[in-house]
C-alpha cells in the first residue's frame, strides 16, 4: 500500500464533518484538514517522482513548471497548519510531556529543512525549464528523489504518530 493509498483510506473514515468526541469513527475538522494536507503532499511526491523518471528527455516542461511552482505553497501550507493548529491541539489533549515537546520541536526543525530544500529544488527546476541545455539532469533527478523520499518519510511518521495523537479523545 502506497502512502497516497494510506492517506486516501484515512480520509474515507468518516463521510460527514462533525465534532463528535464519542464515536471513534468520526473525524474532527482539524483531523480532516490534516489528512487533506498529507494527501496533497503525497500527490506532490508522486508528481515529482514522475518528473525524476522522465528527466531529461521525456519531461513536459509546462507541467514541470506548474509542479515546481506548487512545491513551496503545498509544503508551507501544510507545515503552517500543523505548527499553528495541530501541534497545539495535541499538546492540549495529550499533556505537554518533555518527550512530546522534543518530538514536536524535531518536526518543526524538519519542516524548516523541508522548506529550505523545497526552495532550492524549485529554483533548480525553474532554471532547468529556462535553460535545459545547461542543467545537470543527474543532479536534478537526485535532488528530486532526495526531496520526495524525505517528504514521504515525514508523511509516514505523521500518519503513524501524529494523527493517532490528534485522534485521542479526552475521557
Task: Describe, in plain words, how this protein is organized in 3D.
- This protein is mostly helical and 171 residues long.
- The protein contains five helices and no strands.
- The protein has helices at residues 3-11, 29-54, 61-94, 98-130, 137-167.
- Helix 3 runs antiparallel to helix 4 and helix 4 (98-130) runs antiparallel to helix 5 (137-167).
- The relative contact order is 0.16.
For the biggest sheet, the summary is: none
Shape: elongated
Mean pLDDT: 86
Relative strand content: under 5%
Structural class of the secondary elements? mainly alpha
Low-confidence segments: 9-22
Residues in helix, %: over 70%
Distance between the termini: 33 Å
Q: If helices are DSSP runs of H or I spanning 4 or more residues, what is the number of helices?
A: 5
Compute the number of strand runs. 0
Using the CA coordinates, give the radius of gyration. 18 Å
The sequence of SSEs as H and E is HHHHH
Amino acid at each position: 500500500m502506497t502512502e497516497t493509498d494510506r492517506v486516501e483510506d484515512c480520509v474515507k473514515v468518516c463521510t460527514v464533518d462533525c465534532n463528535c468526541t464519542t464515536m471513534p469513527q468520526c473525524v474532527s475538522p482539524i483531523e480532516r484538514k490534516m489528512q487533506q494536507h498529507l494527501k496533497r503532499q503525497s500527490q506532490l511526491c508522486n508528481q515529482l517522482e514522475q518528473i525524476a523518471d522522465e528527466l531529461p528527455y521525456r519531461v513536459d516542461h509546462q507541467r514541470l513548471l506548474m509542479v515546481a511552482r506548487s512545491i513551496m505553497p503545498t509544503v508551507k501550507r501544510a507545515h503552517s497548519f500543523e505548527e499553528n493548529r495541530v501541534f497545539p491541539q495535541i499538546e492540549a489533549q495529550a499533556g505537554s510531556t518533555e518527550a512530546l515537546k522534543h518530538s514536536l520541536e524535531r518536526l518543526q526543525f524538519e519542516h524548516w529543512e523541508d522548506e529550505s530544500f523545497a526552495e532550492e529544488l524549485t529554483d533548480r527546476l525553474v532554471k532547468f525549464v529556462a535553460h535545459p541545455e545547461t542543467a545537470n539532469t543527474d543532479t536534478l533527478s537526485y535532488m528530486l528523489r532526495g526531496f520526495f523520499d524525505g517528504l514521504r518519510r515525514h508523511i509516514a511518521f505523521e500518519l503513524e504518530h501524529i494523527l493517532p495523537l490528534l485522534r485521542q479523545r479526552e475521557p
